[in-house]
């Protein structure tokens, strides 16, 4: 099982950025600076990274909302590791790291809603929040 490690330095963030950028559409320096500051400076928001065979496997960003609620802000798996159960394994590891969390939430789009359904999340269609982009609220009571 992949092991998630908290990203705590600029160097670690830079190593994770190519995977994190997959969750944003076209990446740019402004997004990179914004998310670096948010993930490295917030007490409630953190980024975890995982490697497999010395390569970046995936990243997961989370926002703690009190002791028992956690929002998945980003999850991204390297393309070569997709559809191999690595995302499921990262979520299991995330749950192990946050045992007090009883309610998980995530907002996603058409590309990833199936992933959350496969993990047992309930899905609410939020409609087109952005032009031509359907969004979904995914929730899981642990």
Tell me about this structure:
The chain is α+β, with helices and mostly antiparallel strands. The chain has a domain of 97 residues: Gcn5-related N-acetyltransferase (GNAT) (Aminopeptidase), CATH 3.40.630.30. Strands 1-2-3-4-5-7-6 form a seven-stranded mixed beta sheet, sandwiched between helices. A hairpin with a 4-residue loop joins strand 3 and strand 4. The longest helix has 13 residues. The relative contact order is 0.15. The mean pLDDT is 90.
Brief descriptors of the model:
4 helices; 30% helix; globular; single chain; Aminopeptidase; 7-stranded mixed β-sheet; 142 residues; alpha+beta
User: Which strands sit side by side, in order, in the main sheet?
Assistant: 1-2-3-4-5-7-6
In terms of DSSP E residues, the strand content is 35-45%
Contiguous runs where pLDDT drops below 50 for at least 5 residues: none
User: What are the secondary-structure elements, in order, as H or E?
Assistant: EHHEEEHEHEE
CATH class of the domain at 5-101: Alpha Beta
Helix content: 25-40%
Strand runs, count: 7
CATH fold assignment of the domain at 5-101 = Aminopeptidase
Full CATH superfamily name of the domain at 5-101: Gcn5-related N-acetyltransferase (GNAT)
Described by the principal axes of the CA atoms, the overall outline is: globular
Largest sheet report: 7 strands, mixed
Determine the structural class based on helices, strands and strand pairing: alpha+beta
